[in-house]
Design goal:
Elements: E1 2-3, E2 8-13, E3 26-33, E4 39-46, E5 49-54, E6 59-62, E7 67-70, E8 78-84, E9 87-92, E10 97-101, E11 104-107, E12 116-123, E13 126-131, E14 136-139, E15 144-146, H1 148-151, E16 158-163, E17 167-172, E18 177-181, E19 186-191, E20 200-205, E21 211-215, E22 218-222, E23 227-232, E24 237-243, E25 248-253, E26 257-261, E27 266-270, E28 277-282, E29 288-292, E30 296-303, E31 311-316, E32 327-335, E33 347-352, E34 359-364, E35 369-370, E36 378-383, E37 389-395, E38 406-409, E39 412-416
Antiparallel strand pairs: 1-7, 2-3, 3-30, 4-5, 5-6, 6-7, 8-9, 9-10, 10-11, 12-13, 13-14, 14-15, 16-17, 17-18, 18-19, 20-21, 21-22, 22-23, 24-25, 25-26, 26-27, 28-29, 29-30, 31-32, 32-37, 33-36, 33-38, 34-37, 35-36, 38-39
């Protein structure tokens, strides 16, 4: 990764992203132009880890302070990216699939020659990619499986994908919605209630089970049984995402359109640059990130915006250190406001005995686990969507007799027990 000097930097004060609920809150937006090629996809795990991809293999990463170019090793156009835990997946032209492993991008494609338009993952071992002519594949961390027949795809392009702890969704260009029941482990029949003539581009779902879909100038809402137009913008919409803290929704599109739903009203604005916005992502703190056609990346930081319901970890162990046998340490992730279990959390967490001693092992949980150095007290776990608890074994034959196990999000230590 190497720093890049932006060609153009513009600072604007605008109500771009989510309407704040307190009078003093505001959005401060900075737009920068990089390189020679357009950006098409953007995703992140926190405000210090946001990844944007685009034409000719271009990849940039935001570290919380600045954008830096990453070496992708590919010249293929990249259409979408999904950041999850400590890894990320990017997809593009001619079946290109890249995975971020140990800070470096590695090609893991080769299973199809069709263009890929969308990617979604709950963990490094649960990845879906979609694309041209009904292409739909699943990756379990080692093998790619063709799911198109099981999903019932037709020969039409599948534009994008999204999922949560309960379902995985893929949207066809004509509104055909493919659904996988993650709890039952089976595909449902394709839903055609959204097929109304619009060309669909993107989708995102809230915590109430509603799926929002961007299609030309319309935003549709699918509630599990029916699909209706919720609002219509003045310009075509290309990307859609939301703020999980209060289920606000923001769609972006042509001429710098930002089309926002605050829970009651849709409001349409245009960025000063009026760049064609291809995709967007929103962090848990309400900060919005936009990928633009004119080689532009925009960061909109929410100043004095309230943070609601952030994840919090609850650790259960006996507080004693030295044991003859391994101790089982239970970890639960909850909503910090309501105290209820969170099944929509995903990210890499760090386990720390805070003594410099102890070795960890996995007991319960489907995420990727890593204890890189034995008996240093540290380990990491990629928390997957759909799970609110995990358990780990702790071998602690030496060290201070009393310890306080610490659990925190690796990319943001403020999210912790």
């Amino acid at each position: 990764m190497r720093p890049s000097s932006p060609v153009l930097t513009l600072l604007t004060l605008a109500a771009l992203a989510f309407s704040p609920t307190n009078a003093s809150a505001a959005q401060v937006c900075t737009t920068q132009e990089f390189g020679k090629d357009e950006f098409r996809g953007i995703s992140g795990t926190s405000d210090s880890n946001v990844i944007a991809v685009g034409k000719k293999g271009v990849i940039y990463r935001w570290d919380g302070t600045s954008w830096s170019e990453m070496v992708s090793g590919s010249n293929e156009d990249l259409n979408d990216v999904e950041a999850i835990g400590s890894t990320a997946f990017a997809v593009g032209k001619d079946g290109e699939v890249l995975q971020l492993i140990g800070g470096a991008w590695t090609s893991i494609g080769g299973f199809t020659n069709e263009d890929l338009f969308g990617v979604w993952a709950s963990s490094a071992t649960d990845v879906y990619v979609v694309g041209k002519k009904g292409t739909l594949y699943h990756y379990d961390g080692s093998t790619w499986s063709d799911e198109s027949a099981a999903a019932g795809t037709d020969n039409k392009d599948i534009e994008d994908a999204w999922g949560d702890g309960n379902f995985f969704y893929a949207i066809g260009e004509q509104g055909r919605l493919y659904r996988y029941d993650r709890s039952a482990g089976s595909w449902l029949p394709p839903d055609t209630s959204c097929t109304a003539g619009d060309k669909f581009e993107d989708l995102w779902g809230d915590s109430s089970g509603n799926v929002y879909l961007a299609a030309q100038k319309d935003v549709y809402v699918y509630d599990g049984s029916s699909c209706t137009v919720a609002a219509t913008a003045n310009e075509n919409l290309l990307g859609i995402y939301g703020w999980p803290q209060n289920d606000s929704v923001i769609a972006v599109g042509k001429k710098g359109t930002v089309f926002e739903y605050d829970g009651s009203t849709w409001t349409e604005t245009q960025t000063v640059e009026e760049d064609e916005l291809k995709d967007n992502w929103v962090s848990s703190a309400g900060n919005a990130y936009y990928a633009g056609k004119k080689k532009e990346l925009t960061v909109c930081q929410c100043i004095d915006c309230p943070i609601l319901g952030l994840p919090q970890f609850v650790v259960t162990h006996d507080s004693y250190g030295i044991h003859c046998q391994d101790e089982v340490v239970q970890v639960q992730v909850i909503d910090s406001s309501s105290g209820t279990p969170k099944i929509d959390y995903n990210g890499q967490v760090t386990l720390d005995t805070q003594s410099g001693f102890g070795s960890w092992g996995p007991v319960a949980g489907s995420g990727a686990f890593n204890d890189a150095t034995l008996n240093d007290g540290l380990a990491t776990y990629d928390w997957p969507l759909g799970e609110s608890s995990a358990a780990f074994s702790l071998s602690y034959p030496e060290g201070p007799p009393s310890i306080d196990v610490d659990v925190f999000q690796s990319s943001d230590a403020g999210i912790r027990d």
